[in-house]
Amino acid sequence: MNSSFFKNLGPISLVTIKKHLECNSFKIDDNASFKEFTSIKNLSEKGLSFLSNSYFSTENIPSDGVIICSQSIYRKFKNANPLIIVNDVHSAVAKLSNIFYRSLTNKEIENLDEPKIGSNCNISKTAVIENGAVIGKNVNVSSGCYIGYNCIIGDNTFIDCNTVISNSLIAENVHIGRNSSLGQQGFGFAINKNENIKIFHSGRVILQTGVNIGSNCTIDRGSFGDTIIGQNTYFDNLCHVAHNVIVGNNCVFAAMTGIAGSTIIGNAVIAGGQVGIAGHLNIGNNVQIAAQSGVLKDISNDSSVMGHPAIDKIRYIRKYKKYYAWY
Which among 145, 178, 209, 323 is least buried, having the fewest CB atoms inside 10 angstroms? Predict the structure, then answer.
């Protein structure tokens, strides 16, 4: 994935990779090199990606590019892809992410074009807007805000006090509350008993038209893809959206909702306060989730759930009446 927020250090040779990883290669020329390190869905020719044991599936694996996998996946892999086989995929991903990508240096940021600010904007004197940023028309950037390098802010957007935005593309007519943080590194790392290894997050945050973000919210940028909030979706105060989450259009999330990484949420989903949604799930369209529910598995379209773990709402109420009606 090409991004103006980070430096791609590729191509990286197989020889270099073998210096950093204990690995074996399968159907790869010793002189091979890789131009990028991406998610599996973005894998292309001369690219490198990975498959973990937890979420392994033979479906929809691109035929191009090289895949990093474990011994157990290698044994059941039926595709024709060339492979790099490692003992610990998570650790390998963390190490390689930092070999392929880095943030821009201060000197590189200084060499970017000065910020472009559209007409009729209200920019506080205490706001900081880095080089390369593009601010549309009729934009309000309140006191204490920070807009990072190469960010794009669409027309008619309002950004309240002390909000920090980096590595983000924001469309028109967006409202972001005070003390919110968008585009920071996500909570992704390989656990190591001596020193955990952070995964370099090379993705972005994308807010589409009409999104509303409350106060004290956090939205992490993607690791190997983007974190995306769809059109006219509203988040209340104190909500958290983790890396790689994709939220559809016309959704509503009440205060203190937390969405774990890589979950995909459909359109017109409504969640009450303090809802927790686990990672790597698929939530369908027109789903309603009652307050304080814990969603631990996929939810199909047009469902209404509640409880922890969240189950069908009617089923939950019947069980509640059966066991607790005497209180």
Answer: 323
Q: Which of 80, 103, 126 is the last residue of a domain?
A: 103
Among residues 198, 191, 182, the alpha carbon closest in space to that of 245 is found at: 182
Same domain, residue pair 77 and 185: no
Q: Is the dihedral of CA 173, 158, 245, 291 positive or negative?
A: negative
Q: What is the structure's pLDDT at 41?
A: 84
Q: In the annotation, is 243 catalytic?
A: yes
What share of the chain has pLDDT > 70, as a percent?
94
Question: How many whole angstroms separate alpha carbon 24 and alpha carbon 124?
Answer: 55
Among 90, 240, 243, 280, the one annotated catalytic: 243
CA distances from 47 to 39, 94, 100, 220, 226 (A): 10, 17, 11, 24, 18
What is the C-alpha separation between 139 and 79, in angstroms, rounded?
Answer: 50
Listed residues 81, 103, 125: the one ending a domain: 103
For 121-136, the pLDDT digits (tens) are 999 999 999 999 999 9
pTM metric for this prediction = 0.93
